[in-house]
Amino acid sequence: MDSKMMIGNLKLENPYFLAPMAGVNDIAFRILCRKAGAGLVYTGMINPLSPMKLDLDDKPAIQIFSANEKGIKEFITKHEEDAKLFDFNLGCSKSLARQHGFGAFLQNKKENIEGILGAMRGSTKKPITIKLRKSNKISKTIKIAEKYCDAICIHPRTIAQGYSGKAGVSFAEKLKKETSLPIIYSGDVNEKNAPELLKKFDFIMIGREAMGYPNIFAKLTETNEEFGFKDYLALAAKYKIGFAQIKFQAIHFTKFMIGGSELRLKLSKTKRLKDIEGIYRKID
């Protein structure tokens, strides 16, 4: 096997991943990205204590977030067969993460991090990854991650930056020199710079550029088949995805359409699924 296409015991088809995005990566969208060519797709953040029903027929990489190890063993045991791998989010910089002390706001609590990763490693034979954000604590976190994880994902922006400003590629390159673990790079990845970034890192994650555009993976992998919103709608019906989520995706699928701003305005005013379907029917 090509070791460059392995994360732990998981063999991957290619190095282009759909990044974990809360509120975006529903199962219909994940399936489209996989069909378009993504080598791996992540769920959005999932609380292991949440009673929410999960649609995991596509066997994605499951990203969890927590401030402690409570419920992690039970969650992973329950979903062991549903996941390609398990990822721990240590990078979320949103106000909710600050309020509850998870994501990037957990980075100062080494004991908690070690407890969580230890619980994860002890609960699964699947690979484990960790997503980190740029900070002056990152070297210490890497030392912990090396005990339990099979790969590290780095989004080289600080908490203060959020998703603004430029991602620090040079910071991620220095990080790669600090560890023997494969590095998954995340931050400002697009169709043009992805091949160049792959010369520096083992894998890359594509987030915002993939929203409404699963075909970015088709372009990068030279997959012949491409997919549109009607393909998403068919999958949304199969998995009974709610109207609000369908509307959200419908708006983003106008990204490269002629008259996209006008279409987005019309879609924003819709209140029924048939209205969205009517707008897209006229596009054809």
Poorly predicted sequence stretches spanning 5 or more consecutive residues: none
User: What is the rounded Rg?
Assistant: 19 Å
What's the quaternary structure here?
Answer: single chain
Distance between the termini: 44 Å
Amount of helix:
25-40%
Strand content: 15-25%
- Secondary-structure-derived class: alpha/beta
Give the strand order, joined by hyphens, for the main sheet: 3-4-5-6-7-8-9-10
Number of extended strands: 10
Summarize model confidence as the mean pLDDT.
94
Global morphology: globular
Instruction: Please work out how many helical segments DSSP would assign.
Output: 12
Q: Sheet bearing the most strands, described? A: 8 strands, parallel, barrel
List the helices and strands in order.
EEEHEEHEHHEHEHEHEHHHHH
How would you describe the overall organization of this protein?
This protein has 284 residues and is an alpha/beta fold. 38% of the residues lie in helices and 15% in strands. It is built from twelve helices and ten strands. Strands 3-4-5-6-7-8-9-10 form an eight-stranded parallel β-barrel, surrounded by four helices. The protein has a two-stranded antiparallel sheet with strand order 1-2. The model has no long low-confidence stretch (mean pLDDT 94).
